[in-house]
Design a protein that fits this description.
CATH topology of the largest domain: Serine Threonine Protein Phosphatase 5, Tetratricopeptide repeat
Catalytic activity: S-ubiquitinyl-[E2 ubiquitin-conjugating enzyme]-L-cysteine + [acceptor protein]-L-lysine = [E2 ubiquitin-conjugating enzyme]-L-cysteine + N(6)-ubiquitinyl-[acceptor protein]-L-lysine
Keywords: ANK repeat, Metal-binding, Repeat, Transferase, Ubl conjugation pathway, Zinc, Zinc-finger
Order of helices and strands: HHHHHHHHHHHEEHEEEEHHH
Number of strands: 6
Strand order of the largest sheet: 2-1-6
GO molecular function: ubiquitin protein ligase activity; zinc ion binding
Protein name: RING-type E3 ubiquitin transferase
Largest sheet: 3 strands, antiparallel
CATH architecture of the largest domain: Alpha Horseshoe
Radius of gyration: 31 Å
CATH superfamily of the largest domain: Ankyrin repeat-containing domain
Number of domains: 2
Shape: elongated
EC number: 2.3.2.27
Length: about 325
């Protein structure tokens, strides 16, 4: 929760790999780590938390309410964090969630029964209100104070929101594509990181002779490939795949929301799978097949075997092959 409060997504990523409890709530305010990330606008942390909840089958995690009935969407809208609002809505956050008559609720003067649109009206961020309205938020919802969202905007001095929040407004509301922070392969690669064991150190493993260089991840060149992208089939190490899905914005591919571009071919990645053992064996056999199919004989002659058995002779032979001797002609003898 502290990592989400301060936006340290790398720490959040590591804790999730080691199976920390995502749904654990604060004992005083009943807020989860998602509430902390949404209040601070840390969309990468929220992205990781939602992926971990999806991997665990927690479909209602995004709508979990804290004290006073406040959801993560309420807090993101109140503080004007557009990216968080956009992501939470695309992750099926409840647009009609209402707060309760509780003193501990933030901005309790807005009134109980307030929706995220009421909180966005108090926050004063135009784009937050536009996203909420475009995705179906009710501009005619009335809270316990009898206020519409536009009334909240007027009370808090946010008069520039009236053209967006007024139920009688005829101005068009822009359409918004899916959030760029949706990441459909993140739950799968997070599960793979837990199963495969995430290598946290960045020291090169090739110097110890433990990893074949031909099997190196093409992104970091330090760890072996152990996951493969669906569709394109390119292979990465699980750490690079996890960082890719945690940081990179997604493609807007029709029918596949949240696909991440492959760093090698730029095609959309919908999920990751564990690298099959047969793929690794095929790569090990490929050099032997190439040498067997080459024009030269696979077996050495007796002379070649004798020359290679002596290191000194081999070095002298290699050095002789690399030297071009000049042509020599003896001087003519004069009679």
């Amino acid at each position: 929760m502290q990592a989400c409060r301060f936006g340290h997504w790398e720490v959040v990523q590591t804790l999730l790999v080691f199976r920390c409890n995502v749904s654990k709530a604060d004992s005083l305010s009943s807020r989860t780590a998602l509430h902390a990330a949404a209040a601070g606008g840390h969309v990468k942390c929220a992205r990781l938390l939602l992926a971990a909840a999806a991997a665990a089958g927690g479909g209602r995690f995004v709508n979990r309410a804290a004290s006073g009935g406040v959801t993560a969407l309420h807090l993101a809208a109140l503080h004007g964090h557009v990216d968080c609002v956009h992501l939470l809505i695309d992750e099926h956050a409840d647009l009609a969630a209402q707060t309760l008559p509780c003193v501990a609720a933030p901005m309790g003067s807005i009134g109980a029964g307030s929706t995220p649109l009421h909180y966005a009206a108090a926050g004063g961020e135009v784009k937050c209100c536009q996203i909420l309205v475009s995705r179906g938020a009710d501009r005619t919802a009335v809270n316990c104070n009898g206020w519409l969202p536009v009334d909240v905007a007027r009370t808090w001095g946010c008069h520039w929101l009236e053209h967006v929040l007024s139920p009688k407004s005829h101005l068009p509301i822009p359409k918004f594509p899916p959030s760029g922070y949706l990441s459909s392969p993140l739950p799968s690669v997070l599960t793979l990181a837990r199963d495969c064991g995430l290598v946290l150190n960045t020291s090169s493993e090739f110097s110890d002779g433990g990893v074949d260089e031909s099997d190196a991840c093409a992104v970091c060149l330090e760890r072996p490939c152990n996951v493969a992208a669906e569709v394109c089939g390119h292979e990465l190490c699980v750490k690079c795949a996890l960082d890719l899905c945690s940081v990179i914005k997604s493609y807007d591919v029709p029918g596949i929301a949240g696909s991440i571009p492959c760093p090698l071919c730029r095609s959309g990645i919908a999920s990751f799978r564990k690298r099959a053992a047969s793929e690794a064996e095929d790569e090990e056999l490929e050099p032997d097949l190439n040498s067997a199919c080459s024009g030269g004989s696979h077996y050495k002659s007796a002379g070649e075997h004798t020359a290679s058995s002596s290191p000194e002779k081999k070095r002298s032979t290699d050095s002789d092959q690399g030297i071009i001797l000049p042509l020599y002609s003896p001087p003519a003898v004069l009679s």
